[in-house]
Known about the structure:
alpha+beta, 8-stranded antiparallel sheet, globular, DNA-binding
Amino acid sequence: xxxxxxxxxxxxxxxxxxxxxxxxxxxxxxxxxxxxxxxxxxxxxxxxxxxxxxxxxxxxxxxxxxxxxxxxxxxxxxxxxxxxxxxxxxxxxxxxxxxxxxxxxxxxxxxxxxxxxxxxxxxxxxxxxxxxxxxxxxxxxxxxxxxxxxxxxxxxxxxxxxxxxxxxxxxxxxxxxxxxxxxxxxxxxxxxxxxxxxxxxxxxxxxxx
DNA sequence: AGAGTGATTAACT
DNA sequence: GTTAATCACTCTA
Length: 209
């Protein structure tokens, strides 16, 4: 039994509210449905790591749109990464979808990811995009529109907030303003699909520091 | 640990 | 119009 579809009202909230709410939510495209287990918030105005930090460009234009748009970018010469835009129009916020679990369309997913173990199908943002068949052609799409090829739904079964985990993003701490007040990264504790390279526990100070 | 890859962007002419 | 630096990753070792 699928959850209710997420509309402008749910996705138009502040990115730091929407990000944890997307844990356990599903995204469906081209025959595959993924349940999200790890996301990361980007807020252009206060986030030097955001593509939108230094203003609007043709590529980042969707980030400045209304909550519910898709922002898909290409990086490292071969990878697409999927973001869900949040907030009000003009605020340049988005949630990067980092990891998830395929819950429907296993056959299609297996064709898109030959030779990859199911657990790794969406373990990482570019893998998630590949498995879902999402690329730059979908950037700017309004997922809340009727007939959208990409559909976001609330968790089919409620997620216990006790399973939420969050942490500051590496390398962007201490920029002042909201940047050091909000967690950037959210994941679900105990999920095998969460990207392995993020510490699940507070990390000891750097060796040698 | 390193290579690979190409879109994007700002800084040039 | 051209160029060079950048990039939020994955894969093969």
